[in-house]
Design brief:
Strand content: 15-25%
Number of strands: 21
Mean pLDDT: 81
Helix content: 40-55%
Number of helices: 19
Shape: elongated
Radius of gyration: 37 Å
């Protein structure tokens, strides 16, 4: 009770001391929180940044039979081995490619963006079957490699199969490519009806940015849209049809057939199994997407440079990478178009790709500009078959792209689905180039990596991106030093308040203790009188300080962090860190101490002060009353 009496005897003094102790405890806690966050961030910064190297935009210029030209954007096995041995290489992510077919998926056509629209972005989505009447006599043009192109106009009578986004017009210009002299083809006749399968290309919808910005009429506006028909698959570039047949690679395709009577009767006819198969493949193509297996999603250029971001859910976990879990990350555009949400499962069947055997075989080749074509769905082939069937993939993340139909060397369409590399079935096609390849480099080793490629075939073939790691690490070191100074300053203020408290609150009670001892009070009672009330004030102030610090530390940390990186004194960091600022901010948030750590720190500081109070109280209580009364005078 003596302790309570002492606290209530001078409420004004008690309130002043409680306020001083609370403020010093709060300042100490905030200083500790900032230092703790920066210290933890300095340790964890490696996990916040991923340094990557990706192939340069275009393949190198080489000498060809026709003079200088672009070589292949794909790397050879020998070059890949050389790449693996380069300085600082942490991981090589060569993304296996398959096409995924699912009745739950409705992919998008690039026609939604006229300035990016092109057949090289749609792939199997463009596969279209129509019934129509020929209205113009075919013209024949010879092409290199022994092919002929027959061009004629058809009036569309029925749209048998097409993607829902493609605006099939009433008239189409058919460009039918055939292998010259083999197999025999029937030249379409004016006035007759035909069943025609090809790739729809709405050239009238194509818009060119340079024409638009210059205010010039678009060159294809008003042009007749195309149906591009190819009568032979696989491709016969570099190999003849006869050789394909000898290899058992020839795949007869339904492209142009005379139509007598109703469409339903045509497909029901026993002799038209090839057309029934073609219709099935076309319908599959309208629900097919490119699937990339990755060992590090953050090494994919668009994700690494925040041109694609996870907006719902998360990336893959280490365990999912290691076990090859059936999980996937899809775009918000594909999810919205397909009516899918985070946590839903997609039942997909995956099939492979072959440069010779796949329809849309340009999906893994180098363009004439020397750029690797980006992922697009290929058509199902009986020659290749399914690699896996009806497997369920859980959507754990949804991403959003800045530009859905970007055409850069490292781009992918919003139809692209990412899965862990281990989830790709055996037989997935591996393409060492373009967006299918990236190298994870040790943070801080980008220059050493590039230097180790000098004088080799790979010199100049790679560019590096470190997300601002070099500048970030320097900034974090500077922030850590500043945080340490702030912590030491707050600790000094707390120590001064503690010293004042020891001197003015406890030591000034010597006269009262002397009187108590003269009246027969025991040293234990005197010690309790001195220590109890002081310890109560310290405990309450420390607890309130910890609670207040917990509420304010996040705000204070962010304020100090933002000011340090954007202020004049540290502008050298703020400018350079624009690309990686979000990673640091997120890392700082996660590095902040939890309430348990803050409470433990408060308990330690309170324990130190209470120990000093106890020792002083014990010393005073054991001092003789005459000496206490004399010293008080």
């Amino acid at each position: 009770m003596d302790e309570v009496k002492r606290l209530s005897r001078k409420p004004g003094s008690t309130a002043v001391w409680l306020t001083l102790l609370l403020l010093s405890a709060l300042l100490l806690q905030l200083g500790f929180s900032l230092f703790y966050s920066m210290f933890t961030l300095a340790i964890d910064i490696e996990a916040l940044y991923t340094t990557i190297a990706v192939p340069s935009d275009y393949a190198p210029v080489v000498e060809t039979a026709y003079g200088e030209g672009r070589g292949s954007a794909e790397f050879t096995d020998e070059q890949i081995e050389l790449l693996k041995s380069a300085e600082g290489v942490k991981q090589l992510d060569m993304r296996g490619f398959t096409t995924g077919w699912s009745g739950q998926l409705t992919p998008l056509s690039s026609i939604e963006d006229p300035f990016s629209y092109g057949s090289d972005k749609d792939g199997a989505i463009a596969d279209t079957i129509i019934a129509g009447t020929v209205t113009s006599a075919p013209t024949v043009t010879e092409r290199a490699g022994g092919a002929e192109v027959l061009e004629f106009i058809v009036s569309v009578d029925d749209i048998v199969s097409s993607h829902s986004q493609l605006p099939i017009p009433d008239e189409l210009l058919v460009a039918w490519t055939v292998a010259k002299g083999h197999p025999e083809v029937e030249v379409p006749e004016v006035g007759r009806r035909y069943m025609i399968r090809g790739d729809f290309f709405a050239i009238s919808r194509v818009r060119m940015e340079d024409y638009y910005s210059a205010g010039i009429d678009q060159p294809y506006e008003g042009a007749m849209d195309w149906l591009l028909v190819n009568d032979y698959f696989p491709a016969t570039s570099g190999i003849s049809v006869d050789e394909l047949i000898a290899l058992d690679w020839w795949q007869p395709t339904a492209t142009v057939s005379r139509l007598e009577g109703r469409v339903e009767d045509f497909f029901a006819a026993p002799d038209n199994q090839l057309w029934r198969d073609a219709l099935n493949v076309a319908e599959m193509g309208h629900q097919s997407v490119p699937v990339l297996g990755t060992e590090c999603l953050d090494s994919v250029y668009q994700f690494n440079q925040k041109q694609a971001r996870i907006v719902a859910g998360r990336e893959f976990t280490d365990e999912e990478y290691e076990s090859g879990s059936r999980v996937c990350v899809i775009s918000d555009a594909l999810a919205g178009n397909s009516g899918l949400s985070l946590g839903d499962t997609i039942t997909m069947s995956l099939f492979g790709y072959d440069p010779f055997l796949s329809r849309y075989n340009y999906g893994m080749t180098t363009s004439y500009q020397g750029k690797m074509i980006n992922p697009l769905p290929t058509a199902y082939s009986e020659l290749l078959g399914f690699l896996s069937e009806n497997e369920e993939y859980t959507i754990v993340g949804i991403y959003r792209q800045e530009n859905r139909w970007d055409d850069s060397s490292y781009a992918f369409t919003p139809n692209t689905v990412f899965i862990p590399a281990g989830a790709q079935p055996e037989g997935a096609y591996v393409c060492a180039g373009g967006t299918y390849l990236s190298v994870v480099v040790e943070n801080g080793m980008a220059e050493e990596f590039l230097a180790s490629l000098e004088g080799t075939e790979l010199e100049g073939r790679f560019v590096t991106f470190d997300q601002g790691y070099e500048e970030a690490s320097e900034a974090v070191e500077a922030l850590e030093r500043s945080a340490l100074r702030l912590f030491l300053g707050s600790a000094l203020v707390w120590a001064l308040v503690a010293a004042l408290f020891l001197t003015l609150y406890q030591a000034r009670e010597k006269r009262n203790i002397g009187i108590m001892r003269s009246l027969g009070a025991s040293p234990a009672r005197c010690r309790g009188y001195l220590f109890g009330s002081a310890a109560a004030l310290v405990a309450v102030a420390s607890l309130l300080g910890a609670a207040a610090a917990g509420a304010l530390s996040g705000y204070v940390n962010s304020l100090v962090f933002s000011g340090a990186l954007s202020g004049e004194a540290s502008s050298e960091y703020g400018t350079a860190l624009s690309a990686g600022l979000e990673e640091l901010a997120a890392g700082l948030q996660s590095a902040a101490p939890g309430f348990g750590v803050s409470l433990l720190a408060a308990a330690v500081s309170a324990g130190i002060l209470c120990l000093a109070l106890y020792l002083q109280a014990d010393r005073i209580a054991k001092t003789g009353p005459r000496r206490l009364l004399g010293s008080a005078e």
